[in-house]
# Entry
Amino acid sequence: MLPHPTPTDPAPSPTPAYRLATRLLRLALPAELRQVTAQGRAWVPPQGPLLVVANHHNGAVDPALIALHLGRPLRLTAKSTLTRSPFLAALFRAFGVIRLHRERDRAEGARPEENGGALAAMAQALLAGDALAIFPEGVSHDDPGLRRFKHGAAHVALAAAQGRPAGPVWVLPCALRYQGKGRWRGRATLCFGPPIDVADWRRGRPDASPGQLTRLLRARVAELLPPTAAPDRPARSVAPLWRPLAAGLPALALLIPGWLLSRLLTGRLSPDRHSDPSWRLFLLAACLPIGAIGGAGLLYLSSGPAAAVLPWLLLPFSWPRLWQAADALQDRLAGAEPRRLRSLPRSLSRPWRSLRLALFIDRLPQR
# Structure
């Protein structure tokens, strides 16, 4: 094991908007992912310039998971064409997202010739002590392995190291793997690895090129990728369903309006199927307060003030119970006996199998 880094730069404190956004994302995350396993968090430098380099499998869900588990404020990068949405453009401005122009998006208005300024802005953010996340593959994909890494991350890290000769510039490899991606409430694994001090690496290799650093970063991320072995068959005994469901009803009453609104907006705003998980997660986080207030208003009109206030008072208890009930529902669908399926008519057995495939993610391959 490498020694844990001990940087001395003060860490920027998160803004109120950043704190609010991460809290809403934490609340919305169980609706999209049943379980997120974070490994290697002890390797994250708590302060100082930090560039997180990760593979890219699930659109904006990837940076969201990194931001929620990094333990320090994170600035993001994103493709420039996303700013065509007024909602995302305002969000990018609020959180200081640095826009990158991809050559493949030129027909949609991207200007790759402006990437020099974007890379310089990223280097300046590192010199200011910020943490940044970048995905060198350049595109979110469904391939089981890694695609070719582009050199942008290496250029940024080397530029920051050149402007900071007296201190470390950390590059943190990160690997993400999804099981049941695109299904309801899949699983994700997030793994951080030992950081690289690019300033020290550069001093030992004064003639090193960005290509050499890019190859090193890709190898470090590849080492962290979890295996793709199929998971075990679920146990016959599953958690009780009705008790957590009853306890989660107050949270469900506040969740449903925001959930319906986020699905409606996803259908209108998401450009393609691959982008749906990202839009669902972020729109649900944005719609949770609106939907909760709307749900409380409906309860007030139908049953009076006590019925509107009670779900809010019970929310800290009922919210985790709601997702325990969702876990139990998935486990029960997974454990349905094949004999029962054979006894169903063909007109019912095929929809039942489709429902199990949509809700039960344990037998699906990882991505």
Summary: Confidence is low (pLDDT under 50) at residues 1-8, 361-366. The first helix runs from residue 16 to 28.
